[in-house]
Amino acid sequence: xxxxxxxxxxxxxxxxxxxxxxxxxxxxxxxxxxxxxxxxxxxxxxxxxxxxxxxxxxxxxxxxxxxxxxxxxxxxxxxxxxxxxxxxxxxxxxxxxxxxxxxxxxxxxxxxxxxxxxxxxxxxxxxxxxxxxxxxxxxxxxxxxxxxxxxxxxxxxxxxxxxxxxxx
Amino acid sequence: xxxxxxxxxxxxxxxxxxxxxxxxxxxxxxxxxxxxxxxxxxxxxxxxxxxxxxxxxxxxxxxxxxxxxxxxxxxxxxxxxxxxxxxxxxxxxxxxxxxxxxxxxxxxxxxxxxxxxxxxxxxxxxxxxxxxxxxxxxxxxxxxxxxxxxxxxxxxxxxxxxxxxxxxxxxxxxxxxxxxxxxxxxxxxxxxxxxxxxxxxxxxxxxxxxxxxxxxxxxxxxxxxxxxxxxxxxxxxxxxxxxxxxxxxxxxxxxxxxxxxxxxxxxxxxxxxxxxxxxxxxxxxxxxxxxxxxxxxxxxxxxxxxxxxxxxxxxxxxxxxxxxxxxxxxxxxxxxxxxxxxxxxxxxxxxxxxxxxxxxxxx
Lengths: 168, 363
What we know:
Helices cover 39% and strands 12% of the residues of chain A. By secondary structure, chain A is α+β, with helices and mostly antiparallel strands. Chain B starts with 7 loop residues before the first strand and ends in a 6-residue tail after the last helix.
């Protein structure tokens, strides 16, 4: 019943994703078969920032009205780091005229173009392979952001036979 | 972004959409009215809807209990075993393959213990009629959200005031439009290939993407426990191959073992919910399939029965049924889990790894 007020008239807006040490730990699977069991305190802030930087150009959140919701990745007080924010009108994106939903869409279109600029410019001799994942129903906000932010994509250990399968 | 092979790097895009169950139910009852959004009528009438749902759950309780018992029987049916094993897993259907069980069934015993415990039995007496009453509107709202990501809801009030986004595209459409524009600018050999993976209701969104952007250079389309219908899947895949053959494109449809599908118990609720995965609930309770093709494509039994429907497809297809070992998904929600499972000596393969989509060849 907590959503009763926001369900009545949900407006576009940001969602916050605290990048905690536990979340960094869960996202620590560097290859398909390896996950860290513990992270040193001194490393956890750097790894949290790395996770957020990577996720900020990979996670796309859409709200109840089909509008983009910028994700703000926040860090613990101990890290003393500013949040990493996906583009939001009036914060880190041009605040165009018009209804609020259109401002968010305009901002998102620019964000999507920026992502695709990266995809268009891979390191020399390489091409990108887009991996699009869309989760299922019955997922509440924080777990679905956590899953989206934490899925590792390193394949250094992929055997050649699987690489061939992947490459078609 | 990780190394993939000598020339490819992976770039992940994870799309999240609002899919909470309870939230969807409330949203459906206070906000959404026959495709219109921000409905004033619905807002003021919502207490009546809540009241009606409560009354309905009481009045329909005997029917809900009876249906629940019949569904439970269906899950134990010999036909399910015959279709799932003897028809689905035979060599004469090369597109269909099953992980062999080798006598293993690693599903947790605690699920059955909870299910048959007094807590589970008494709990189900209460929850079955409640879910019977509120499940359908919640499913309806979640379903509408899978469409709203691509097409914003009609808002009569905003339209009357000539404000709001009248072109109506959802923001996910803009994302794929940006992908499409960039890809079309690149020479063919530099275009990034696309692997698109949907889990459960995410597959409904995937089908919409395929229908709206059929010309993108998809290489792998992966459905994991797809909650979309066989009919919608055939239409979407048909769109992708309508213009030209796609020799490099493969379609993978992954399903749980039929026994795990029919007998899933949600231990988080101490066995107080009816048995079966979300797909079982969708086929039995949340929808009224007009024909067999309107059932969910992600259930192995349905995928096996739909063999003839997929024969005409111009795509390379693979239908996989998982086994019952702890290294595989044993529940509907586990397809996208890859972390080591407690008390399991084997590691799980992540869902984006190609070896997850096919059955490994036997020793």
